[in-house]
């Protein structure tokens, strides 16, 4: 199984807001942090973005930026531009001079994720994925950007639906890009999948989450010694192999409980627990409440 596909499936991403952002002259806007994942695709011109604690990034035409969670940031026409406090809006935004053709145009907005597992799963993704135009244009990603730009400029029937579906595809493609990004991904899922040995072990876990997966067995799949594998897995993914398996099992369980379509004994069996009682004990220890209580609070049924 594909770990990235599994995680995207549980996150259930959808484009919540997508709007044109344009500017002319000298301008700047300051936005507060918010939990929703954010994105920006530069369709014309250039601008600068600065996140707290990081050096400013220059955004050029064709660049794509994805943030699984959105920290406070400033967007401006050039370094030193004064920034006004701004709030995210659903409508088109025009910065700077209000008359004349814009010098900068971008499509920006946010995605929604299934919130039940978002904290666990987003922790496995990098804080920022940036795909420069010069690198992205030669790929499938570049072709998607071109199609999206074309759709934005047109006024065909079904435009909003097409844009939403294309943005969802862009999200998955951007995360996939992180896997093949020549080793630049930070600690987490994407970096683990970049490593051929660790990637084989992660795919094995996702292919059979019911298995106990002792470290020595995963090490053999990776073609490494037990100690070397355990150290590299923790270094690349950010947690020990057993912890990764436990987190993934709980993510599957939380999703099933919220949907309310399976009894506890079936959920327990599907994720590798010998009984509903053993699963309930492990769930309470990790989540801090019983499976039944969790299910009731998230729209599922307390099925026994």
From TrEMBL:
<dbReference type="InterPro" id="IPR050204">
    <property type="entry name" value="AraC_XylS_family_regulators"/>
</dbReference>
<dbReference type="Pfam" id="PF12833">
    <property type="entry name" value="HTH_18"/>
</dbReference>
<feature type="domain" description="HTH araC/xylS-type">
    <location>
        <begin position="199"/>
        <end position="297"/>
    </location>
</feature>
<keyword id="KW-0804">Transcription</keyword>
<keyword id="KW-0238">DNA-binding</keyword>
<dbReference type="InterPro" id="IPR018060">
    <property type="entry name" value="HTH_AraC"/>
</dbReference>
<dbReference type="Pfam" id="PF12852">
    <property type="entry name" value="Cupin_6"/>
</dbReference>
<keyword id="KW-0805">Transcription regulation</keyword>
<protein>
    <submittedName>
        <fullName>AraC family transcriptional regulator</fullName>
    </submittedName>
</protein>
<dbReference type="InterPro" id="IPR032783">
    <property type="entry name" value="AraC_lig"/>
</dbReference>
<dbReference type="InterPro" id="IPR018062">
    <property type="entry name" value="HTH_AraC-typ_CS"/>
</dbReference>
